[in-house]
Every structure is written in structure tokens, then in C-alpha cells.
Write a structure and sequence with these properties.
By secondary structure, the chain is of the alpha+beta class. It has six helices and seven strands, in the order βαααβαβββββαα.
Length: 211
């Protein structure tokens, strides 16, 4: 309670902010209640300030911020986002939303849950939904031909060889294969080029990056 809730997407209301102020001003009972219980009488300016703050987060003059509720029984498909896609914008700096949960007392078969959500599509375990990818049924989830992790046994995980390679590199004062700074730096250059390509809709050459 009291924590800031960050929107997953924003709706541009710059063209209707004046109408929103006017309609809100007609809510006389709300104004009377706020004045009597909280001593607040600037709710119109407060609403406009909130809209301006949300707008600043996504590069608009005024916006409203929203999150899709994904609880049990609620649709996971971005139906509303698709219907309002012409008015929706995500923040260039806050469009990535993550959630991590942990429980130490649970009796059930092993289940490794994956759920990534976005305004243009979502990924749920081995299922995908996309508004942009051609060939997918826009009315239901599509299944990815991939195996799901069904065991918590880590005996087959490559942790020991990785740790041993790190220790050997330190002891012999040499670079660890494929994990040195130069390789990591080049990997980030590729990621930046991919982001630029997606944003500008064109092929980006690595030589264009000045770092």
C-alpha cells in the first residue's frame, strides 16, 4: 500500500484533456466530499498534473497509465491494447516490466513458470501470442515446439565446468573463454544495434555504432 504502481502502457489523452477536466468539474458531489473530508479543492489541477507526469514518462504531453490484471480468471490476451493500439505508447525507459516471486513452503510437482507480457504480445510457458507475427491465430495462443523443464534436478547443469573454467582462468592469469570484457562489450553492441534496427525499421551495421 502506498507504493507507486508503474504502468505497462500509456494512452495518449492530449486531445481530450480539456474535455476530461470539464467532465470532472461536473462531479459536484465528489468535489464536496473531497473538500469536507480531505480539505482538497484542487482536484482538477491534480488530475492534470498526474496526466502530465504520465505523459512525461512516455514522451507525450498528457497520458493515462494502465496495467493489465493477469489474475486467475482474467484474460491474458492484450485485447484492450489491440483495440486502442493507435493511442497506446510505452515508455522508452520504463517499458520493461519484470516480476519475481519466491515461496519456500509448497507441495506440488515441479513447475518452472515463464510469463512475459507486452502490449504487442505475450509469452506463457510454451505458448506465444503476438499481434505482429504473421501466420499466428489472433484469437488464441499458439504453441511453441519446445520442451518444458519438468525437474528441479540440477545434476546435468553445467555449473561445475563453468566454475572450474573461471578458477583456472584466475589461477593462470588468462581470459576466460567467451566471457571476457571484450566479448561482453561486443555482445552489448549487437543488442544496441538490434534495438536501433527495431526502432528505425531498417538494417543497422555495426560500423554505425560509435563505441
Amino acid at each position: 500500500m502506498g507504493n507507486r504502481i508503474h504502468p505497462q502502457f500509456y494512452v495518449n489523452i492530449a486531445d481530450t484533456i480539456a474535455q476530461k477536466r470539464e467532465l470532472l468539474s461536473w462531479h459536484q458531489s465528489q468535489r464536496d466530499w473531497l473538500r469536507a473530508h480531505h480539505g482538497v479543492d484542487q482536484y482538477l489541477n491534480q488530475m492534470t498534473g498526474w496526466a502530465a507526469r504520465f505523459g512525461a514518462e512516455c514522451g507525450l504531453e498528457f497520458a493515462e497509465g494502465f496495467r493489465q490484471h493477469l489474475g486467475h480468471g482474467y484474460p491474458h490476451e492484450p485485447v484492450w491494447q489491440q483495440a486502442l493500439h493507435k493511442f497506446i505508447k510505452t515508455s522508452p525507459t520504463k517499458s520493461k516490466v519484470g516480476k519475481c516471486a519466491s515461496i519456500v513452503d509448497c507441495l506440488q510437482p515441479y513447475y518452472f513458470h515463464i510469463h512475459l507480457v507486452g502490449s504487442e504480445g505475450s509469452l506463457l510457458d510454451n505458448k506465444i501470442y503476438s499481434a505482429k507475427l504473421a501466420g499466428l491465430n489472433k484469437a488464441k495462443w499458439s504453441t511453441l515446439e519446445t520442451g518444458l523443464i519438468d525437474s528441479g534436478d540440477v545434476a546435468d547443469h553445467p555449473y561445475q565446468p563453468q566454475f572450474q573454467a573461471f578458477v583456472d582462468a584466475v589461477n593462470n592469469n588468462r581470459k576466460m573463454p567467451l566471457t571476457d570484457f571484450d566479448t561482453a562489450f561486443e555482445s552489448h553492441r549487437v543488442v544496441f544495434a538490434a534495438d536501433m534496427s527495431a526502432a528505425e525499421g531498417r538494417t543497422v551495421k555495426m560500423s554505425e555504432l560509435k563505441f
